Amino acid sequence: AAVPAAAPVVPVAAPAPAAPSGGRVAASPLARKEAQAKGVDLSRIVGTGPGGRVTFDDVHNAPAQAGVAQAHASDYAISPEAAYLAAKLAHSAQTAPHYYLTMDIQVGKALKLLEELNAGEDAKIGLGDLFVKAAANAAVAVPDVNASWLDGVVRQYQRVDVNLVVGVGEGLRAPVLIGVEDMSLKDVATASATAMEDESPYMAGTMTVQNLGAFGLSSAAPVVHTPQACCLALGAVVDAAALVDGKVVSQPKLAATLAADHRVVDGAVGAAWLAALRALVEAPAKLLL
């Protein structure tokens, strides 16, 4: 009877061999290219070439277990609120037709006003607090932004409740300030400070403000927290040249970016709201009325 031919020898992965001196595995250029394409760790392949050199065939025929070992990693649990926000934002990104509008806003007068208001006060009003108040007042002036898309129906709200995005990673939260349009700047600052410490379950507002200026970002493009229609992201304050009374001077400004759901807020309405926001911030005494 004929003797069956022996099966071809297939190189197998070595059990975590030590890397050769110098840390570089001897391998042909074609083997290296194939290893990169397959995501194979050459140090786990037994070479059949001269002096143990890894050949193209060695890599090509290597079994799956010869691939790259798992990188060092660890898992961590996230809070229920962070998990809820993650699911909510994923759904929003997939279902809401987003668009973005960015406007530069001069903040010199606002910073000067805050300096005057905070003089001798223990609890300070921040620029972020001023923008939260201005966002709510602008929503009163342009009420179409203070609305939600609900299964083909647009619901407009009579009160402006603002979610503040705070924390990062597993600590991400979005506490809500209720009826911001009726608050004073000091009330907003106090409510914001209290909200930062509040770990109660997530409550949906009617719009969201996210201040990323502390990270030095010039601008950001956030995801709308549906069913809300708008999210405002603030960039860092930077000094920029401006023309004042015919003279070029340096003035602080920041970029404010509106993310909006186009089903509820079209571009003209979004632009009108941003313009109203800028008018309030650049003439901040109006926020004291």
Automatic annotation (TrEMBL):
Pfam families: 2-oxoacid_dh, E3_binding. Belongs to the 2-oxoacid dehydrogenase family. One of its GO terms (biological process) is pyruvate decarboxylation to acetyl-CoA. Residues 26-63 form the Peripheral subunit-binding (PSBD) domain. Signal peptide: none annotated. GO terms for cellular component: pyruvate dehydrogenase complex. This is Peripheral subunit-binding (PSBD) domain-containing protein. SUPFAM superfamilies: CoA-dependent acyltransferases, Peripheral subunit-binding domain of 2-oxo acid dehydrogenase complex. GO terms for molecular function: dihydrolipoyllysine-residue acetyltransferase activity. It comes from the Eukaryota.
